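Listing S7. Sequence submitted for prediction.
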Amino acid sequence: MMGYSFVSNTLISWICVSCISSTLTLIWLHYGKKRTKNFTKVLFYDPTIKSTNCNCQYSFNIDCLSPNCSSVKTKEIILCLRKAKKSMDICVFAISNKSIANEIVAAHKQGISIRIIVSNCILVKSNEIKMFMKNGIKLKYQENYSNSYMHNKFAIIDSTWLIHGSMNWTHQATYGNWENVIITDLPSLIIPFSIGFEKIWQRNIFIP
């Protein structure tokens, strides 16, 4: 009987140890192991849905509270730009949206390294482009555009965030076009876009 009791007590002890070990493992997996959750947001601009409670199209107000206002979506782009601690690499066909342009200049004044590539189109002489040049922001465009345009629309923030979609960063695109924008921190997308930006940067010239 004593032998049987000894075996039973030993078995119970091992079961208790196993349960405690399993519990601690589950706790570590839940709280202690570092888990990465990626973020992706999709924005759709629809000019047929009009906001009745704002006048942002003319005031450039990005703090509008109307859910149908395009400025609410544009603010998401601006908030992503504000995440920059080191760099912004921007490659878009055209830039003439005042709110976005002001945010880029503000980041430059804070010491953020900024490189911008635009297309050599009519908007290359926009007030926003002139503002970038006046503030000493590195700005390039294609020298030869007779056969094709640099038609990309993306930006990389700190090699950590990607803004990409159909939309040029213009007033017309913001308030008058059907557009889409994706904001994401997925490395599988950011890495190839970063490589692509460097290739485009090398193949273009600084705006004189």
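Caption to Listing S7: primary sequence and predicted structure tokens for the chain studied. The beta strands are 40-45, 87-92, 113-118, 138-141, 153-157, 161-165, 179-184, 205-206. The longest helix spans residues 2-32.
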